[in-house]
């Protein structure tokens, strides 16, 4: 009987702790929110738009829910040139919806030999060298437990990831 009571109390505390963590604001959310209050936020023009190009066969095997986007390189180059300390970036989510990322600039060390990879339509990784970039971190608007990271480079290349309790974007 005592063992069952302890086990029940243990599961109860675990459930309460888990629920509390799901609604608690993250330190990243607090940091970004504070910085955004002290600087002007630049709303970026739409960098991405949905395309009707079907994903490759290899991508279909890896991705469960996919939206193919095309990048407006001119808008990305302009975003780099603006060098804004805080940005709002809308990314199409399909069916007319979008994710809005609230981001602040983060200085990270990227030396001249910094490079990154991309995945083309065949799923092949290509190595690109883009020099110095602007790097941002933040969250998905309206979700204090999410995170987002986005970088833009002088040549119009971009990379980013965002995540919430439902998965990656």
Tell me what you see in this structure:
With 169 residues, the chain is an alpha+beta fold. The chain has one domain. The protein is 30% helix and 36% strand. The strands form 3 sheets. The chain has a 7-stranded mixed β-sheet with strand order 1-4-5-8-9-10-11, with helices on both faces. The longest helix is centred in the N-terminal third of the chain and has 22 residues, at 2-23.
The percentage of residues in β strands lies in 35-45%
Strand order of the largest sheet: 1-4-5-8-9-10-11
Distance between the termini: 47 Å
**Rg from Cα:** 20 Å
Discrete helix count? 4
Low-pLDDT residue spans: 10-21
For the largest beta-sheet, the strand count, sense and barrel status come to:
7 strands, mixed
What sequence of helices (H) and strands (E) makes up the elements?
HHEEHEHEEEEEEEE
Oligomer: single chain
- Globally, the shape reads globular
Which features does this protein show?
globular, two-stranded antiparallel ribbon, alpha+beta, 169 residues, 30% helix, 7-stranded mixed beta sheet
Précis, in short:
Helix content is about 30%, strand content about 35%. It has about 170 residues and is of the alpha+beta class.
How are the elements arranged and paired?
Layout: H1 2-23, H2 27-38, E1 41-43, E2 48-50, H3 57-62, E3 69-71, H4 73-82, E4 86-94, E5 97-105, E6 115-119, E7 125-129, E8 133-140, E9 147-153, E10 158-164, E11 167-168
